[in-house]
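Fig. S4 source data, part A: sequence.
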Amino acid sequence: MTTRTRMNVYFAPELLAQVEALALRRQVSKSAIIEAAVASFLSGDASDRLEAAMSRRLDKIGREIHALDEDLAVLGETVSLFVNIWLASTPTLPESAQAAARAKGAERFEGFMQMLGKRLATSDGFLKELSRDVDSLRDSPAQEQIDADGGEA
């Protein structure tokens, strides 16, 4: 049998209430709760657990940053490709038609901004939709036939 030494300590009433509630929930004595808390405080494994938790969190943040970096690269390439094609295919307007074109462009841009606001408020976003579309194409019978033919469409 282990011998124990009695010790009188003082607790804030709120802390003592928490200890009593935990003792009731776990069906153990208040002394056992306090003893476990002091042992945990004095052992070095508390700092090891904190370090492991921080490491897991940092790893998760690193993966999230990597995913954001990939999304940003896709967006950059998409905008670049769009601008390149648009500039190559849009003819220069005569001076007399430029004012009407600017007015129509402002009207279309306003519609675009409203549509963008609605999509951002209600959908997963372009990149998640694109990812689902690409995944569904990979699983389609047409893709399986392309793979069977050696990658030729």
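Fig. S4 source data, part B ends here. The two ends are 80 Å apart (CA to CA).
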